[in-house]
Amino acid sequence: MNGIGVKYFIITIASIFLALGIGIVIGFSLNSEKFVQKQFQQQLNIIDKNLVALKKENDRLSKEIDEYKNQIVQKDKINNALVSAYLKIGKTESAVSLIITSTDYSYNDLIDFLRKNGIKINKVIKIKSSFLNIEKTEKELSVDFSDYKFPDDAIKDIAIYSVFDIRSDLVKKLVEKRYIEENRLLSGISDTIILAGGNTAQNNNFNKLDRKIVEFLNDIDSLNVIGLQQSYSEINYCEYYKSMGLSTVDNVDEVSGRVSLIELIRGNSGNYGTKKEATSILPTNFINVEDAKKALEKRRASLLVELEKYQNATLPTQ
Predict the structure, then answer these.
(1) With CB atoms 3.0 to 4.6 Å apart as the test, which of 20, 124, 141, 163 could cross-link to 183 if both were Cys?
(2) pLDDT category, 311, cuts 50, 70, 90?
(3) Taxonomically, which superkingdom (predicted)?
(4) Sheet hosting strand 95-100, strand order edge to edge
């Protein structure tokens, strides 16, 4: 065999092996593609089955949610009916004033609730955030407030005004300069004072304001003083109120809290709500109508005696 024949033979052998290699690669690729397609189709079938199952589960859960919503609506109707029945039976003739010390939360809904349900509100006094900084911000302090000690004199006059309807010149100035807001709905003595507190962490002014108000109000014999807040208040003012001997409601934004508040206005006592200072969510014993009337009469008689002390004081009034 000459050199050309050997070269041809080698090239032929190499071509055969190359063709076999290419055939193997092509065959493997075709088989792999079919394998991948088969696996992909199987996964699609599994996903499709899961989607069908998920849709069924979603439909079931949607029906359950609708059922729960209907139950909530029905419970709300029942609760409202029970509250309405309670308010008719436990209607009180108490006269109430609200002192709102919270600068972060509104109590307009509560005020509307009380008025709609026949609670006599004499006045609403809201102490604004600027009140505690009056000495720092009032440029005319030496002229308008030079005869007063802040905040003690102001707190004392606000408390007297809320209870006995004695409106001093100092209270007038505080209103005029918008350190406090007042809504004077009715005149006369208030036998119950509601302190509406609760604030965010950065506005915890209990010791600066609420404590001083409570200390003064506690000195008025037989006065019914109630401390309250909303359930979402960051600072639990009711824990502080309770430590000073007040009856409290820490969830007055809820139906149960409002029932508890009405019961405290009627003359009951206790600490109610959902936070740690509360002993129960609602009073376990509701005061009857006759006992509520007797408690109110006793409070009013005592407050008339207390009124004489302040009428004889040297408070300028309007």
Answers:
(1) 124
(2) confident
(3) Bacteria
(4) 180-184, 120-127, 95-100, 192-196, 224-228, 247-249, 271-272
pTM (two decimals): 0.75
Query: Which of 19-33, 150-164, 304-318 shows the highest mean pLDDT?
Result: 150-164
Report the C-alpha gap between 35 and 291 in whole angstroms: 88
Q: Which helix (H) or strand (E) holds 249?
A: strand 247-249
Tell me, what DSSP letter sits at residue 287?
Answer: P
What's the angle, vertex CA 112, arms to CA 163 and CA 79, rounded to 5?
115
pLDDT at 227: 98
Phi, psi for residue 247 in degrees, rounded to 5: -75, 145
b/e sequence 262-275, b meaning 16+ C-beta within 10 Å:
bbbbbbbebbbbee
Backbone phi, then psi, for 100, in 5-degree steps? -95, 110
Would you state the structure tokens that stand for residue 290, as one six-digit string? 């006759």
* Residue 93 three-state SS: coil
